[in-house]
Amino acid sequence: MESTVYTTKSAPTPVGPYSQAIRRGNILSVSGQVGLDPETGKLVGGGVAEQTRQTLANLESILKNAGASFADVVTARIYITEAADFAPMNEVYAKFLGEPFPCRTTVFVGLPPGMLVEIDVLAVVA
User: Fold this and answer.
1) How far is CA 16 from CA 50, 51, 111, in A?
2) What is the mean pLDDT of residues 41-61?
3) Integer-rounded Cα radius of gyration of the chain
4) What are phi and psi for residue 68, nearest 5 degrees?
5) 102-106 contacts: CB < 8 A, separation 24 or more?
6) What is the pTM of this model?
7) Contact of 76 with 59, CB cutoff 8 Å
8) Is the model's pLDDT at 4 over the cut of 90?
9) What is the pLDDT of residues 52-76, one digit of tens each?
């Protein structure tokens, strides 16, 4: 089965050897995104809510470029650095992804300095 790679300038350029998104059949996998502004390449100001908003905007841009949307997402994986950031992250997340909410895993991790959240998604598209 052939893979299709998707790249958009509306989301941060990958900083390593990985693709923004790859589709194989009806499965679309989107690499982890963080709160980088794609125009400046810098982390957005504020806290976890602002970074979550930008992270989800980046994911939304990649999904759209690949012909998908958050409605197609079946799994989300969230990585955050502080347990205290769970509630504000969750509040922003709920505004972007509607019911039925996708399956989800949230893990507390260490991220590069200043980064508070990273999210990747898996979508099923027609």
Assistant:
1) 24, 21, 15
2) 97
3) 14
4) -130, 180
5) 102/73, 102/74, 102/75, 102/76, 103/74, 103/75, 103/76, 104/75, 104/76, 104/77, 104/78, 105/75, 105/76, 105/77, 105/78, 106/77, 106/78, 106/79, 106/80
6) 0.96
7) no
8) yes
9) 999 999 999 999 999 999 999 999 9
